[in-house]
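It is worth pausing here to work through a concrete case rather than discussing structure prediction in the abstract. The textbook approach is simple: state the sequence, then state the predicted structure, then interpret. We follow exactly that order.
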Amino acid sequence: MSAVPTVAQRILLVEDSDVQALELRSVLEATGYEVTRAASAEQALELLNHSIPDLIIADLELPNMDGRELTRTLRQNPRTRAVPVLMVTSASAREDERAGLESGADAYVQKSRDPQPLLMRAAALLRSARLDTPQEGADFRRARVVVLDSSATQRLNIQQLLANDFMMQASGDLDEVLRSLSAPEAPDCIIVNLLDVRIDGVTACERLAHARDTEGAAPLGCLIVGVGGRSLADGDLVRAAFLAGADDVVGSIADTELLRLRLRALLRRQAVQREVRRLEAERASAHATSEHFRLLVEGVLDYAIFMLDTDGKVTTWNGGAERIKGYSSDEIIGQHFSRFYTEQQLANNEPQRALNVAREEGRYEVESQRVRKDGAAFWAHVVIDPIFSADRELLGYAKITRDISERRQAAEQLQEARVALMQAQKMEAIGQLTGGIAHDFNNMLAGIIGGLSLLERRINAKRYDETKELIDAALTSANRAASLTSRLLAFGRRQSLDIQPNDVNAIVASMRMLVERTVSENITFDTAFEKSEAWAMTDASQLESAILNLVINARDAMPDGGHLRVETKAGRIAKNAGGECAPGDYVLITVRDTGHGMTKEVLAKIFDPFFTTKPIGQGTGLGLSMVYGFMRQAGGQVLVESEVGKGTAVTMWLPRANAQKQVEPVQTLRARGAGETVLVVEDDPQVRLMIGEALKELGYNSLLHEEAAAALPILEDEAQHIDLLITDVGLPGMDGRKLAEIARSVRPDLKVLFITGYAQHAGVRSEFLSERMAMIVKPFSLEGFADAVNQMLSPNA
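Step two, the predicted structure:
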């Protein structure tokens, strides 16, 4: 092996003596090194600010700052911490060598006329620096040291001397030590007895160095230290050891402290160099990753990806940004990103607001218009993320912009198509609805108009005994029309409901006889109640109608017989459960049959108005629509389960109510009035005429008006006595509820009876009516109207 470097390596020589500096420089340059000389430690530090050498050779005795202080300064600076330092001195005092090593020097050489010791140690320090490889993470564990010596006594002696400082192992077999180099826990240093009587120390150094230096043969970085059994005066042996690959040679193991210091210095430099290599590898890896990321970002053309500094100025620019925004990197880098905003956005200080939101909330994201270089506006999806250092210092912003103009245009076109489709479906539904209404009303009106026309003929002909049949037919058609409008209002959730706490079980039980008469004899019927009482908020009469509708549907689904059951039980809807109902407790009423069931296609349409699977003339198609509308208006829902061939279960959900005590109201009704005055406000002339005639027939005086404005002066006239106000809810101008409020302000005890055919604002009576108020729904019979008026004017009302 040769000590001559194959590539010129740089050495900083720190020597204050011009003569000695010239001699040392000549020797080093003759060997092939590139040498720079500093005459003082201060000059050396100045040179190190500009260039870092591969090795520093420093005299121990320097003016002002000596070599030891220089070495300590070098070890404290991260830039020079790993640079090997070789200390030289003209003195031979062991104290100087010990002080130099303790200050952080890697080796110590006494000046002499023979340059070989200096050259050998310099070459060893430079070689070990080249051979060292980076390891994962910093390695500050205790170093592993192996002693190679054929003498067991000598091995034990060295182990005991160094056991407190290092993890010691010993072996008298060179091959065993060579194998340890490739072990998972390879040694950091091997001490070779150069004067071993059985093992050739120089050959051992050469084989160990070869195994260490051969790529892939063993982990790199193991130090080889030759030790003599006595003071090594034989310069040839020392030279041979260094040439064989030893990193250092210690003259004698008798000076335990010096040996320990030399080993510490070597291993310390080794550990520092490993850490430096690791950091350099990390920096190289980070640089490679950064470069790969830069190339990746540069290659993205669908997104504008760029960085902003803390003030919002562009610092990077990728190809996508140039394609989308139109600026080249030379044009835009260094410019403020606000130039991408519209005039209105600039006036609203949008750019600064975006940075504020990103910094304070961690992200800013928006879809908004932006401006290209040519001034054209486009729709963009913008994301701005803040970039912070490890100590949360703001470094800048990462900004990503995507041109979504085409996507937005496509979305708008799709929305337009959806609106058009919904409008077409709406018109189809309206056409179906109006067609069904027209069909049914035409049939009913035919019975009414035809019956009244024939009635007029027979009265004119004085055939009075033949009029009752025609009157009954006309009334039947009119009642059918009233039932149809009631179902339409229920479907549209515009009927007037008397929502009160009701025991659902009692309602179902009271309907048992009606249900048994409705179904055929080949259908068995029973009820199943989870509890004896099931109180719910509902309109009792409308619930009865809904149950009857479902019973009729179940009957028609079992033409060959079957089983029908009405069940009640408690239910609950949890928070965040979704669906049509609010979270809370409910009462469930299920009408279950064993009929033919329904397909998925039929199930999807069962709540559509006028949809029916029954033959023509056997159903209006409004039964389930009415049930659905009633449930939604009452704050509940209706769910249907059905399987072809097994039957159907329709479940109505009603809000649960607290149990109530049933108290039957005691009222004294009169068959006729006693001349009380009733103020009537009704905009429809026919209905107003009918009400006036009915009141006259019942023995009341009436004041008839078509609008609220005409009735107000009468209400405000203290001389005019009024016992009851009858008003339509839906009046032109001021509605009936507002009229009642004004009337109550001047007549606090006035009783009010509302009549309505469309409960847009009076869906739930308990919410609409106040004390001494009541309501009846159009169309009503004379008997129903008379009962309502009599109840209002009775003494207990």
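Step three, interpretation. The CA atoms of residues 246 and 556 lie 107 Å apart. The mean pLDDT is 81.
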